[in-house]
Amino acid sequence: MKHKVYFERRSDKMDKVLGRIPPRLVYASIAVIVSVAVLLAACVLYLKVDGCSIIYIIFPFL
């Protein structure tokens, strides 16, 4: 049984393109993380349990 060896030759430019994360993907990921954090912060500030804001239940020293 013979084993065939496959290899690809790429140019330096192609290696650079394949070797980095697209900036648009990075910006989109940061936007999603920030949006979730802001939404979570808004929920924590405005939700109330027994007439007391959740922020004071989580952090009683405030």
What's the quick description here?
With 62 residues, the protein is mainly alpha-helical. The protein has three helices and two strands, in the order ααββα.
Structure explained in plain terms:
It is a single chain. The mean pLDDT is 82. It is built from three helices and two strands. With 62 residues, the chain is mostly helical. The longest helix is centred in the middle third of the chain and has 24 residues, at 23-46. A two-stranded antiparallel sheet has the order 1-2. 58% of the residues lie in helices and 6% in strands. It has helices at 12-18, 23-46, 54-58; strands at residues 48-49, 52-53.
Features:
two-stranded antiparallel sheet; mainly alpha; 6% strand; 62 residues
Strand order of the largest sheet: 1-2
Proportion of beta-strand residues: 5-15%
Mean pLDDT figure:
82
SSE ordering: HHEEH
Which helices and strands appear, and what pairs or packs with what?
Elements: H1 12-18, H2 23-46, E1 48-49, E2 52-53, H3 54-58
Antiparallel strand pairs: 1-2
